[in-house]
C-alpha cells in the first residue's frame, strides 16, 4: 500500500506542474496583471478554465509538501538533520537554475527576455529565498531572477513553522498542531486588520496564513495515511481547513478569480488526496509512467519552465495560425520537460545524494523507502 501512495504522490506532482505550465503558457501574461501581447495567440485561451485556474497547481504542490514534510520530520534525527535534508533538496538545483536563468534572460533577444533583464542584486532574494521587500531598501528594483521563486519562499516559511511545532510540541500530533496554528493565525490576522488600519502584511510574510491551510491539510493526510487519525477526526480537520481555503479564495475575486471555481478545484484536490490516503487503488491512474516521470523531475521543471518556456513561446509568429502555434507550444513544453529531466538527473538528484552522504551519512533504509521530496 505504501508504494502505491508514494508513486501516486509523484503522479500528483506531475499533475501540479502541468497545471502550472498551462497557466503560464496560456493565461498568465494575458491576465488581470499584465495584459501583454507576448503570447502569439493573444487572449484566445483567457477563458479556458484549466489554464485560468492552473495557478492552483501551486496549491496542489503545497498539499503534497505538507504530506512530505510531516514524513521527513518523522524520519529526521534532529533539527539539523531536517535542515540539511531540506537544504540539499532545494538549493543545489536552485543555484544552478538561478545562474543559468540569469544569463539566459540577459543574453536572449526574445520578447519575453527583453521585458525581464536581470541585474546581480536579483540573486539576493533568489538564492536566500527571502521576500524581495527585504532587499528593496538597498536595491529598489530588486526582484526574483524568475517569478516562480515566490512559492519557494512560502515553502521555506512552512518548513520553519512545521519544524518548530514538531520539535517543541507533541511530535505525534503535528497535523493537529498545524491545524490549530492555522486557525490561530487566521483569527490573529483578522484582528490585526481590524485594529491596525495601516496593516502592511508583515504578519502574512512571516506566518503565510493564505497558504497554511493547504500545508496543514497535507499533514492531516499523512497522519491519515499512517492510520494515526480516524477518518472522522481527519474529516473534521480537513473541513476546517477547507472552510478557510474557501474563505481566502474570495479575496482574489477582484483579480478575476471566481471563488466558487477555485473552491471547487480545492475540494477536488482534497478528495483526490483522501482517496490516495485511504484507497490508493482508486487513484491508480496517477501511477501511469509518463505522469510519474514528470512528477519525479517536477521541481527542476518548475525552476526552468517559466523563463525557458516563455522565451521560446514569445518568439512564435503571430501570423502562422493557431494550429501551428499550438504545435510549437507543445514542442516548447516538451523541451522544458527535457531540461527539467536533465537538471534532475545531472544536478538535483546527484547533489542531493552526495551532500546527504557527506553531511548526514548513509540513509537509513526506512527513511529511504519513504522519501518523496516536496
TrEMBL record:
Entry GO MF terms: acyltransferase activity, transferring groups other than amino-acyl groups
Cellular component aspect of the GO annotation: membrane
GO biological processes: polysaccharide biosynthetic process
Ranges that cross the membrane: 12-29, 49-70, 90-107, 148-170, 177-196, 202-222, 234-254, 260-278, 290-313, 325-347
Keywords: Membrane, Transmembrane, Transmembrane helix
Location of the Acyltransferase domain: 7-337
InterPro entries found in the cross-reference section: Acyl_transf_3_dom, Acyltransferase_3
Pfam families linked: Acyl_transf_3
Name under which the protein is recorded: Acyltransferase 3 domain-containing protein
Amino acid at each position: 500500500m505504501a508504494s502505491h501512495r508514494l508513486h501516486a504522490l509523484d503522479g500528483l506532482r506531475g499533475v501540479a506542474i502541468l497545471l502550472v505550465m498551462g497557466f503560464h503558457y496560456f493565461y498568465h501574461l494575458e491576465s488581470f496583471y499584465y495584459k501583454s501581447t507576448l503570447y502569439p495567440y493573444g487572449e484566445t485561451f483567457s477563458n479556458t478554465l484549466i489554464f485560468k485556474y492552473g495557478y492552483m497547481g501551486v496549491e496542489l504542490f503545497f498539499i503534497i509538501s505538507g504530506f512530505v514534510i510531516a514524513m521527513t520530520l518523522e524520519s529526521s534525527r534532529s533539527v539539523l538533520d531536517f535542515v540539511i535534508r531540506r537544504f540539499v533538496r532545494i538549493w543545489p538545483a536552485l543555484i544552478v537554475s538561478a545562474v543559468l536563468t540569469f544569463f539566459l534572460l540577459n543574453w536572449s533577444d526574445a520578447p519575453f527576455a527583453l521585458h525581464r533583464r536581470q541585474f546581480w542584486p536579483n540573486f539576493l532574494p533568489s538564492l536566500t529565498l527571502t521576500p524581495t521587500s527585504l532587499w528593496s531598501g538597498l536595491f529598489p528594483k530588486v526582484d526574483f531572477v524568475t517569478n516562480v521563486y515566490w512559492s519557494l519562499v512560502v515553502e521555506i516559511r512552512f518548513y520553519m513553522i512545521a519544524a518548530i511545532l514538531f520539535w517543541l510540541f507533541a511530535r505525534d500530533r503535528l497535523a493537529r498542531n498545524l491545524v490549530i496554528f492555522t486557525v490561530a493565525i487566521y483569527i490573529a490576522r483578522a484582528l490585526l486588520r481590524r485594529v491596525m488600519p495601516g496593516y502592511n502584511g508583515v504578519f502574512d510574510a512571516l506566518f503565510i496564513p493564505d497558504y497554511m491551510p493547504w500545508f496543514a491539510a497535507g499533514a492531516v493526510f499523512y497522519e491519515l495515511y499512517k492510520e494515526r487519525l480516524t477518518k472522522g477526526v481527519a474529516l473534521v480537520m480537513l473541513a476546517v481547513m477547507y472552510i478557510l481555503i474557501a474563505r481566502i479564495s474570495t479575496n482574489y475575486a477582484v483579480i478575476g478569480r471566481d471563488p466558487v471555481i477555485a473552491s471547487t478545484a480545492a475540494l477536488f484536490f482534497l478528495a483526490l488526496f483522501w482517496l490516495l490516503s485511504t484507497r490508493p487503488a482508486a487513484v491508480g491512474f496517477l501511477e501511469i509512467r509518463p505522469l510519474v516521470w514528470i512528477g519525479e523531475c517536477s521541481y527542476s521543471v518548475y525552476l526552468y519552465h517559466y523563463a525557458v518556456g516563455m522565451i521560446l513561446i514569445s518568439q512564435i509568429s503571430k501570423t502562422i495560425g493557431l494550429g501551428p502555434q499550438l504545435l510549437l507550444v507543445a514542442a516548447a513544453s516538451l523541451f522544458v520537460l527535457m531540461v527539467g529531466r536533465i537538471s534532475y538527473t545531472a544536478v538535483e538528484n546527484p547533489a542531493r545524494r552526495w551532500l546527504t552522504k557527506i553531511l548526514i551519512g548513509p540513509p537509513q533504509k526506512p527513511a529511504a523507502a519513504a522519501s518523496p521530496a516536496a
